[in-house]
Input
Amino acid sequence: MALDKILAISGKPGLYKLVTQTRGGFVAESLIDNRKITVGIQQNVSILSEIAIYTLTEEVPLREVLKKIKAKENGAPTAISHKDSKDKLEEYFFEVLPDYDEDRVYASDIKKVVQWYNMLQKNDLMDFEAPKASQEEEE
Output
């Protein structure tokens, strides 16, 4: 499953898989406990494929950052936990993305990326490739 079907819902822990659309929003399934919830259109929802990380030169799509973590860890869970200290998280992220903008990427952002990667890895959702339609549009 591609990242354009994985959601982060404000105020809700973890990540969610888009199941279906409804008239007033959509139904999503938690990657933590597989419970289904109804999400209204008024809730703040982020699609993982639309998230990017600031670097000193550009914004790098989350998909590319997750690919770099996957390559660093050989597809295994991260060597650090999202609960580690701010310094450990920043040091780890510097190894993954050396030119990330330390002024605009906070420890809480790094914590989320590490947690999301581990959650996607645990649920075998490691397909970080761009959808075929958008690749054709770029060419």
